[in-house]
């Protein structure tokens, strides 16, 4: 077994040459997010959560006697800018690329990080391409799109829903395809209603006549356009709404008040869970003055960043990307704040956690 693990680890570490760090230099963690443009709202929550993990570490004396720094570069949602940012992060000594947001961005992030020898940790995407056997530098803390889609379809079947309108804007085509396959496999008739991200309200108005339930798969452009329309825009949607988003869940909850909303999530509810991870997250948000971070996106950023910090602490070295890879692969089956994780040289996808949540018409999360 030891020889097999060495064979698995060696090629990945060889692709990650160390950049020398002077003694006592900060430990730099990097991310490229759309801090401008329509993706800002979600990206800002992710960044706020990641910062909480960094502030928590520094308030406790840092990492191995060194300060932790989070370097966030703005890519404006552009894949080419993201690739340029990844190169800049590597040049500035980052040990990791954290928290890409969305299917297209995470696909670009995986390619760019592989080219410069950085591990990618915590993509906010269940795209199966990130889980391909050859993609050995990506570490995910969530299941793939197919698992979430099956969970959502199963719940609709329990509720005796026979036909749904699938409203999708093309922002995450792999996820949209997974949703359609899962719904059809559950025996549910799917009426696909393509959404124009520039004019989403026009399609939403058709959904109430098409089916008794609607499944939403909307990207930041559509959500931004909807946020600028009158509340009556969504009033005509079917009473039963379901969504399986990798991004923008908090924003959809805000806009769809007045409708019951079922959703899948790959994280515990930051408003309701009693896990130590979530309690610490809430306390850190209060301690460091960032209550707006307490969202699903913020918790994801916090978890991904905290894992890197704690893995490096356990590995007792934080000088190169290869140190982080070794530390993550040595994590094993071990919870982080009560959240179960399993990472080994053979296992790069640390969590299969997925559950259904419900937010009532009053906007209160029921579970």
Automatic annotation (TrEMBL):
Residues spanning the signal sequence: 1-20
Residue ranges the record marks as coiled coil: none
Keyword Signal attributed: yes
Start and end residues of each Leucine-binding protein domain: 27-330
Keyword Signal belongs to the record: yes
SUPFAM superfamilies: Periplasmic binding protein-like I
Family, similarity comment: Belongs to the leucine-binding protein family.
The protein's name: ABC transporter substrate-binding protein
């Amino acid at each position: 077994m030891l020889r097999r693990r060495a064979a698995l680890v060696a090629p990945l570490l060889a692709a990650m040459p160390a950049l020398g760090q002077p003694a006592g230099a900060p430990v730099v963690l990097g991310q490229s997010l759309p801090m401008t443009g329509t993706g800002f709202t979600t990206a800002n929550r992710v960044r706020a959560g990641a910062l909480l993990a960094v502030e928590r570490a520094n308030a406790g004396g840092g990492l191995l006697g060194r300060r932790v720094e989070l370097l966030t570069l703005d890519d404006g949602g552009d894949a080419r800018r993201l690739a340029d940012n990844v190169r800049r992060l590597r040049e500035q000594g980052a040990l990791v690329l954290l928290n890409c947001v969305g299917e297209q961005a995470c696909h670009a992030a995986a390619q760019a990080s592989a080219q410069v020898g950085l591990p990618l940790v915590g993509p906010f995407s269940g795209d199966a391409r990130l889980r391909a056997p050859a993609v050995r530098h990506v570490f995910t803390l969530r299941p793939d799109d197919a698992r979430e889609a099956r969970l959502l379809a199963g719940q609709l079947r329990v509720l005796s829903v026979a036909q749904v309108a699938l409203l999708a804007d093309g922002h995450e085509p792999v996820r949209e395809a997974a949703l359609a396959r899962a719904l059809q496999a559950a025996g549910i008739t799917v009426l696909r209603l393509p959404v124009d991200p520039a004019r989403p309200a026009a399609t939403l108005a058709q959904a109430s006549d098409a089916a008794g339930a609607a499944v939403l798969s909307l990207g930041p452009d559509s959500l931004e356009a909807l946020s600028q329309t009158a509340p009556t825009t969504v009033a005509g949607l079917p009473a039963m709404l379901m969504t399986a988003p990798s991004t923008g869940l908090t924003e959809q909850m805000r806009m769809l008040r007045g409708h019951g909303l079922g959703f899948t999530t790959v994280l515990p509810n930051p408003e309701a869970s009693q896990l130590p991870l979530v309690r610490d997250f809430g306390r850190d948000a209060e301690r460091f003055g960032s209550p707006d971070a307490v969202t699903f996106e913020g918790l994801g950023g916090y978890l991904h960043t905290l894992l890197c910090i704690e893995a490096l602490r356990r590995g007792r070295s934080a000088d190169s990307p290869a140190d982080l890879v070794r530390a993550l692969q040595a994590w094993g089956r071990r919870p982080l704040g009560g959240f179960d994780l399993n990472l080994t040289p053979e296992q790069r996808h640390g969590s299969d956690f997925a559950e259904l949540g419900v937010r009532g018409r009053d906007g209160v999360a029921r579970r």
